[in-house]
Design brief:
Elements: H1 2-11, H2 13-22, H3 27-51, H4 63-87, H5 94-121, H6 123-149, H7 154-181
Helix pairs in contact: 1-2, 2-5, 2-6, 3-4, 3-5, 4-5, 4-7, 5-6, 6-7
């Protein structure tokens, strides 16, 4: 199924999204798939953090801590995508959104892994591949979410994802400012 899904993702993204949504995985299984895809992402990006010059990404964070921080943020992001899309007439259930996001996260991790390999083999192409992987990820997100939410165009799905990112970041900043500066007057 993996190779078929991989092939369909790039040949017929709407069909691949329908395949994933059609799995009808229970919520717990979908959340475990998301956790697994995020763990893979942390493992793939860790060497990049190690190779970067000091202070490029601020204070280094241990991979386990990064994973533990990523889980609630991504969970909130997926929930926000689902909720905003539902308000805009989307028909997917939360588990379908989680499964699709997990697949797309795994694809992004594979693209970043290829970029990491190219960094050692053909360094000038590594940056182009990284840029291409992120652009493909944004496009695939738009197409996949348009399919599972029943939107006519990927542009509407893209708008949902952008609104979800903004909402989660604003909410996160609000929570951090309350927690970090709550006692100051």
């Amino acid at each position: 199924m993996f190779s078929e899904l991989m092939r369909e993702t790039f040949r017929n993204p709407r069909g691949a999204a329908a395949m994933l949504a059609g799995l009808n995985l229970p919520g717990r299984t979908a959340w475990m798939a998301l956790a697994a895809s995020l763990a893979i992402s942390v493992l793939v990006t860790e060497p990049m953090f190690q190779l970067a010059p000091p202070d490029t990404f601020g204070e280094p964070i241990a991979p386990l801590m990064r994973f533990l921080v990523t889980i609630p943020f991504t969970g909130a992001l997926v929930w926000a995508i689902w909720k905003i899309a539902s308000i805009m007439g989307g028909t997917a259930d939360l588990a379908q959104v989680i499964v699709v996001f997990s697949w797309l996260e795994l694809l992004l991790s594979l693209g970043l892994l290829a970029m990491l390999v190219l960094l050692f083999v053909l360094p000038p192409l590594a940056g182009l591949l990284g840029l291409g992987a992120i652009m493909a990820w944004i496009w695939l997100q738009s197409v996949f979410f348009a399919q599972i939410f029943g939107f006519a165009t990927p542009a509407k799905a893209f708008a949902v994802v952008v609104m979800a990112w903004v909402a989660v970041y604003v909410f996160g900043i609000l929570i951090l400012s309350i927690v970090a500066g709550g006692g100051q007057g």
